[in-house]
Amino acid sequence: MCLGIPMQVVVIDGFNAVCEAQGVRRTVSLFMVRDDGIEVGDHVMVHVGYALRRMTEAEARSAWELFGSVIETPS
Predict the structure, then answer these.
(1) Measured between alpha carbons, how far is 38 from 63 in angstroms, rounded to an integer?
(2) Which of 16, 36, 44, 57 is a Cys-bridge partner for 51, taking CB atoms 3.0 to 4.6 Å apart?
């Protein structure tokens, strides 16, 4: 299974950005969303180092809540 991780853009440098989620920072390519006008503070869905789409803060928060409930659920 592949998961996209919601992250917030912290710094932009051309087609790359430093993004953060849950205290973890990663360098992410913005190449695939280059026409979306991504700005510092925006939230993006990240998969294997690429931002796939912009998302709202509410969508990002909801995804993290869902991830949290899955992790807490005993198998």
Answers:
(1) 20
(2) 44
* Paired tokens of 10: 């912290």
Domains of the chain: total: 1
CATH number at residue 21: 2.30.30.140
User: Helix H segments across 11-75?
Assistant: 57-72
pLDDT, tens digit, 9 for 90 and up, residues 18-58: 999 999 999 999 999 999 999 999 999 999 999 999 999 99
**Beta-bridge mates of residue 4:** none
Q: Give exposure, 40-62, as e/b (b: 16+ Cβ within 10 Å).
A: eebbbbbeeeebeebbeeeebee
Look-up: residue for tokens 């991830």? 67
